[in-house]
Amino acid sequence: MARWLAGRLVQTAITFVVVVLLLFVLMRLAPGDPLGRMQEGRAMTPEEVAWLRRLYQLDRPMGHQLLAFVQGVGRGDLGTSIAYGLPVGTLIASRLPATLLLGGAVLLLNFTVGLWLGVRQAVRRGSREDRWLTAVSLTGYATPSFWLALVLAWAVGVKLRWLPTGGMSDPLLPADAARSRVSAHGTLWKVHARLCGVSPQTHSNRRTA
């Protein structure tokens, strides 16, 4: 067990290093200037552009930039966002509650609904209901989640106007009923979009049962 765990930790460390290096290289090879977005709203003087390039170390050689980037990641410092002007860690932390809410709701419904449907199919193997649920689960398994999310956002949020396509607020904090409703409804349709994951879970549970 200890040997297996050590191997997993080594694989995780190697994967992390490779991902960090690829992220850095791909961002540097992408066309355009990282400071281009800051120049969209207003014209900037060459002195201002040069100051910003020194501030974000964009005037340094790529090797030096890579070393500074890796050292920062090792210290837990992900740098400062050029677009927002805030630390990247702060931006991630501010969006973490919404991510955990969405991900937790998806996992909860995925395993509970998927387990129930999988057991139901296993008990009624070969029935019309089993064939219908199998077809639905395989269709959901083969459907890209990002495409399904876009379709649901257009149909439910734009066409039918049942739920908002965006917006997030904490219903546990003091706020008006409208903001709380936006949070619940916004999470609802996003969970619905992610529930295509229930289909492969159902199929897997059926085979296991």
Helix content: 55-70%
Instruction: Give the SSE string.
Output: HHHHHHHH
Determine the mean pLDDT: 76
Radius of gyration: 23 Å
Number of strands: 0
Number of helices: 8
Q: List the uncertain runs.
A: 177-189, 194-203
Q: What percentage of the residues does DSSP assign to strands (E)?
A: under 5%
Total separate domains: 2
- Basic shape: extended
Q: Alpha-carbon distance between the termini?
A: 28 Å
- SS-based structural class? mainly alpha
The major pleated sheet works out as: none
What does this structure look like?
The protein has 209 residues and is mainly alpha-helical. The protein has two domains: 2-86, no CATH class; 91-208, no CATH class. The chain contains eight helices and no strands. The protein has helices spanning 2-29, 46-55, 62-74, 88-123, 128-142, 145-159, 177-194, 198-208. Helix 4 packs antiparallel against helix 5 (128-142) and helix 5 crosses helix 8.
Summarize the topology.
Layout: H1 2-29, H2 46-55, H3 62-74, H4 88-123, H5 128-142, H6 145-159, H7 177-194, H8 198-208
Helix pairs in contact: 1-3, 4-5, 4-7, 4-8, 5-8, 6-7
Summarize the structure.
This protein has helices at 2-29, 46-55, 62-74, 88-123, 128-142, 145-159, 177-194, 198-208. By secondary structure, the protein is mostly helical.
What attributes characterize this protein structure?
single chain, 209 residues, mainly alpha, 2 domains, 8 helices, extended
